[in-house]
Amino acid sequence: MAFAYFTKDEGQLYKVCENEAAKANLNCNEDDYTVQSISDDLFNDIIKSKKWIEYKDNTVNITDIDFPDGWPSAEVLKQDLKDKCELMNTWANSNVNNPTYNNVISYINYIDKFDFSSLSFPLMVTWEEYCDNNSVPFFHPLQL
Questions:
Q1: Taking a C-beta distance cutoff of 8 angstroms, is the pair 60, 36 a contact?
Q2: Whole-model pTM?
Q3: 63-69 contacts: CB < 8 A, separation 24 or more?
Q4: Mind giving me the DSSP string for the chain?
Q5: Which of 62, 65, 115, 140 is the most buried (most CB within 10 A)?
Q6: What average pLDDT does the structure give for the chain?
Q7: Closest CA to 123 of 48, 66, 69
Q8: Burial of 83 by CB count in 10 Å (0-12 exposed, 13-18 middle, 19+ buried)?
């Protein structure tokens, strides 16, 4: 069973975690958020950037994310990943003792060394789907 954390005031998605162990490593005060259990399939769709959720009227509302044009170029994908790596590096700088730290650093290093010329553009899947399809462990910023 996975979990989603929502802001109490607006019901916006703040964090997701795949299980109780990951929940224990999140470094956030549950009392400050509305925490709801979600299915493993929904969790996977969220971290693969295929679905988005919010919490309204005591209900988790699910929205499909359209990705009809894919990634048009390596430059656009690189910029998006650079932005995500900045978020992950900020997290890593404050969470050296977190059990997830080494895995996050490995993922950042994978992105830094990735050969984008090995891809064909437009890339018609999300980056996270690409990683999953190629057995590359990845992190979505919502997991940190």
A1: yes
A2: 0.92
A3: 67/124, 67/125, 67/126, 69/122
A4: -EEEEEETTT-BEEEEESSHHHHHTS-S-GGGEEEEEE-HHHHHHHHTTSEEEEEETTEEEEEEPP-TT-B--HHHHHHHHHHHHHHHHHHHHH-TTSTTHHHHHHHHHHHHH--GGGS-SSB-S-HHHHHHHTT-----GGG-
A5: 140
A6: 96
A7: 69
A8: exposed
Domain ranges of the chain: 2-64, 74-143
For residues 137 and 111, what is the distance between their CA atoms, to the nearest angstrom? 11
* Residue 126: burial class (beta carbons within 10 Å; 0-12, 13-18, 19+): buried
- Residue 100 structure tokens: 């997830």
Place of tokens 């789907």: 129
Altogether, the residues listed in the chain come to a count of 144
Q: Can you tell me the distance from the alpha carbon of 142 to that of 136, in angstroms, rounded to the nearest whole number? A: 18
